[in-house]
Write a structure and sequence with these properties.
heterodimer; A: mainly alpha; B: mainly alpha
């Protein structure tokens, strides 16, 4: 039915199969939208947030998906600024994943602020002493950049590309994409960093507080670094999942391996910096505030020292070693396990610096505050997953996202053998 | 926020924060203006689907 607008000569599943797939994802999306409407119309009493948890599941989800979306800016940086030409075969997909992550983050923020129609206040009545203001600025501008990077991919649809204006527009946008990519790197550096800075400057909460340079705590740099390191792993992971679902190879191994190798070195250097930061925090920062390490990893039902070991050793050192080693990243299972661990590691890092910070007692009369999100919070956090599946499905079906697909799957071309 | 708003103060925080925002928006705006302008030229004056060639 829609064969005339399907990308190129490539074969795609039948319309009814596609409709069924989209309906399943759409049902989950509607569940999330229902929860979102409840939060908007009935208020934030629909959540389990309270005086202890002003930041909760949504802020963790925001930080995590922004970090995972870091694959877009870092792949763009490597492709357009450093000149790693091989990455042109995966940069389209990285952009789409980045677009999904950043637009999802803004949707979640739109729910979290309670009154999204006042969202423009942050631009007009900006509090220039808040790192979150800078995050809002950069996040919004970077979403514009991602939309601009996504438009040429949409314009490459076979029907749209036949219209001269759109064909030329796509070409002209490609020709100055390096400018947009550089702007994206500038914006990403600051908002990824400021998201880390938000917890690092909390001198009243010794679990989060870090020293730093000038106005920037070390968490500022660690957040940017970890996003650049683990974002490409998320791109690799989603690419592999897409290959599994479609039953096709979509990107050549040398492209994936290059991205994995760079990601491995980035994770390796990041985790060394993270270990130094943690040791300094344990030996210098914490004692100065009257706390010891185990004050933050005991006397509560959930947060034990295991979470620190899991974040740094299992989801930090291990994926770095796998990806740095040629044998490790060339092994199919090794690559996927390393990508999953790296993604998990950055999510745990964000969880710890949002939710464990809120849970840990600070004053002598306080106790650990545990929190479990309401179903509305869970549904609205799952919403981006369904939204992402729908965007990826439409993009894969109708747009030439993977330049190497035809070469890697000659038997699936319409009319071919 | 613009310098003519009542909340504006001529200090480093406002200049750096808001300057950074305008800087990014201007680059994005100029970039897109160039693309659209050039596309109009290529399509309607140069008159070709591959006007860029």
């Amino acid at each position: 039915m829609d064969s005339k607008i399907i990308s190129g000569e490539l074969k795609r599943c039948s319309t009814w199969q596609f409709a069924l797939w989209i309906s399943a994802a759409g049902a989950v999306l509607l569940w999330g939208v229902y929860a979102m409407l409840l939060c908007w119309f009935k208020g934030l009493n629909q959540t389990n947030m309270n005086d202890s948890y002003g930041f909760a599941l949504w802020i963790w989800a925001d930080l995590a998906i922004i970090a995972l979306g870091g694959g877009a800016f870092f792949t763009g940086f490597l492709r357009y600024i450093i000149g790693k030409d091989e990455l042109k075969n995966i940069v389209n997909y990285a952009v789409i994943i980045g677009f999904i992550c950043y637009s999802s983050a803004l949707i979640i923020l739109g729910i979290d602020v309670g009154q999204p129609i006042r969202g423009w206040f942050i631009f007009w009545h900006a509090n220039v002493h808040s790192m979150l203001t800078e995050v809002a600025f950069c996040l919004t501008c970077y979403l514009f950049v991602l939309i601009i990077e996504y438009i040429p991919i949409i314009l490459e649809n076979r029907r749209i590309d036949n219209i001269p204006f759109f064909h030329n527009l796509g070409h002209n946008m490609h020709s100055i994409m390096a400018v947009f990519a550089a702007t994206g790197v500038f914006l990403s550096f600051f908002h990824q960093g400021s998201l880390g800075g938000v917890s690092g400057v909390l001198f009243g909460r010794p679990f989060a507080y870090r020293e730093g340079v000038l106005i920037w705590p070390w968490t500022f740099f660690l957040f940017t670094w970890s996003a650049a390191a683990c974002g490409p792993c998320f791109t690799i992971l989603i690419t592999k999942i897409t290959e599994k679902i479609t039953g096709k190879r979509l990107v050549k191994d040398n492209v994936i391996e290059l991205l994995a190798k760079i990601s491995g070195w980035m994770i390796g250097t990041y985790i060394i910096a993270k270990i130094i930061d943690t040791v300094y925090w344990i030996k210098v920062t914490l004692p100065a505030t009257g706390f010891g390490l185990m004050d933050f990893y005991s006397n509560n039902p959930f947060y034990g020292i295991w979470i620190l070991v899991l974040e740094i050793v299992i989801c930090g050192i291990l994926p770095a070693l796998i990806l740095i080693s040629e044998k490790g990243r060339k092994n199919r299972y090794g690559l996927i396990i390393a990508a999953i661990l790296a993604v998990l590691g950055v999510c745990i890092n964000r969880w710890v610096l949002v939710l464990q910070v809120m849970a840990a007692p600070v004053l002598t009369f306080e106790t650990w505050q545990m929190y479990f999100p309401s179903w509305q919070e869970i549904a609205t956090t799952i919403l981006p997953l369904a939204y992402g599946i729908i965007i990826i499905s439409f993009s894969y079906r109708y747009l030439p996202v993977f330049p190497q697909e035809k070469e890697l799957n000659p038997w699936t071309i319409n009319g071919g053998k | 926020m613009f310098p003519f708003c009542f909340e504006w103060i001529w200090d480093m925080s406002h200049i750096v924060f808001m300057g950074g925002l305008w800087f990014a928006l201007i680059i994005i705006g100029l970039g897109m203006t160039y693309c659209i302008g050039r596309t109009f030229y290529d399509t309607y004056i140069f008159k070709g689907k591959d006007g860029h060639n």
